[in-house]
Amino acid sequence: MNVIPSDDSRLTAMGLLAEAYTGLSAKMHLSFTAVGLSDIDFETLIRLARSPGQRLRMSDLAAQTSLSTSGVTRVVDRLEREGLVVRQACASDRRASYAAITDAGTDRLGAVLPQHLADIETWFTGLLSAEQLDTLLDTLRIIRDAVRPCATAGAELTPSE
């Protein structure tokens, strides 16, 4: 019979991270649905809004989200039908296209952002001291860069664009 260690800090760390993420996601979900967005809609729009030129190549958007290339295509299709994003051709590569946030998309984000920031403050960052938050951000970047090295893809404008 295998014995599962009850005091292994690796298991504890992974369990706490999963529990915190699940709990935070549940708290944030309510704000998103109040303005007609799903969690992935919000993640897509906020990433576009915070990117150079308020747009990302579709492949970079997929790399930054938890979606496959076909999954991000479906999300962008839906957001495009709602007028929240638009596709733009890539001038340097005919095979690539960008997803760009529209004014309507920015307005939708603006409708949810005050509550979202209040939720983040209440349930996450406001629970930490400034030093704890700095340490957490540094730690999360180390882990993110190791497990998702493409997560910042498209974060800088290329000279040809």
Q: How would you portray this structure in words?
A:
By secondary structure, this protein is mainly alpha-helical. The protein has a single domain (16-147), classed as Arc Repressor Mutant, subunit A, CATH 1.10.10.10. Helices cover 60% and strands 8% of the residues. It contains 6 helices and 3 strands. It has helices at residues 9-34, 39-49, 58-64, 69-81, 103-123, 130-147; strands at 55-57, 85-89, 97-101. It has a 3-stranded antiparallel sheet with strand order 1-3-2. A hairpin with a 7-residue loop joins strand 2 and strand 3 (97-101). The longest helix is centred in the N-terminal third of the chain and has 26 residues, at 9-34. It is globular and about 55 Å long. The model has no long low-confidence stretch (mean pLDDT 90). This is HTH marR-type domain-containing protein. Residues 7-145 form the HTH marR-type domain.
Distance between the termini: 60 Å
Q: Which structural category do the helix and sheet elements fall into?
A: mainly alpha
Sheet having the most strands: 3 strands, antiparallel
What is the name of the CATH superfamily? Winged helix-like DNA-binding domain superfamily/Winged helix DNA-binding domain
CATH architecture heading: Orthogonal Bundle
Q: Strand arrangement, largest sheet? A: 1-3-2
GO biological process, one term: response to stress
Protein name: HTH marR-type domain-containing protein
GO molecular function: DNA-binding transcription factor activity
Organism: Streptosporangium roseum (strain ATCC 12428 / DSM 43021 / JCM 3005 / KCTC 9067 / NCIMB 10171 / NRRL 2505 / NI 9100)
